[in-house]
Amino acid sequence: CHALCHPMCSACLPATCGMSSDCSLHLSEGLCRDKGSSPGQQIKEAGGHMHLEGWMKQPRNGKRGQGWERKYVVLDGTKVSIYEIEPREESVKPLEEFDLSLSEGEVMIHGAVGASELPNTAKSDVPYILKLESRCHAPCWPGQAIYFMAPSFPDKQRWVAVMESVVAGGRAAREKAEADAVSISAEHSLG
């Protein structure tokens, strides 16, 4: 899976879809060298904090089948924010936000989206589309799906790989916290 997403990372080729921190580091190093391919796309990693931003398209009015419009997308830590314009000032507020790390659910990043999901989208545009999907464990909360069309295939691969890394990191942290809680409660019941 990741060998397709970021072939520049030879350390990751044998890895499964759960991206390791070594892989994430190799990925970010490779992307920093390669970031000139798309103007406006930036990636930074400081102590595991990921930051990526750039222009992508999103379905008009949030509805599939009504065309696509240009939006500025910012991934900062675990939050994806969507803006009408590039947020150069604090006063610019996001139109929509999507959290890649849910405490009560799971997030999936889909790098391959079927044309049947996107009526009235040109077949030539489908390879550039990615989807973020959240499913909450609580039955009363509906899931959420957001589609993006990247300006190029390498840009799509970059976004998918970085967001998958963030989701995997959040999942690992949550599982460790749950394991620690079980361990603490077991110690107390033995004592």
Automatic annotation (TrEMBL):
It catalyses: L-seryl-[protein] + ATP = O-phospho-L-seryl-[protein] + ADP + H(+); L-threonyl-[protein] + ATP = O-phospho-L-threonyl-[protein] + ADP + H(+). Keywords: Kinase, Phosphoprotein, Serine/threonine-protein kinase, Transferase. It comes from the Eukaryota. Residues 49-168 form the PH domain. It holds the Pfam family PH. PANTHER family: CITRON RHO-INTERACTING KINASE, MYOTONIC DYSTROPHY S/T KINASE-RELATED. This is PH domain-containing protein. The lineage of its organism: Eukaryota, Metazoa, Chordata, Craniata, Vertebrata.
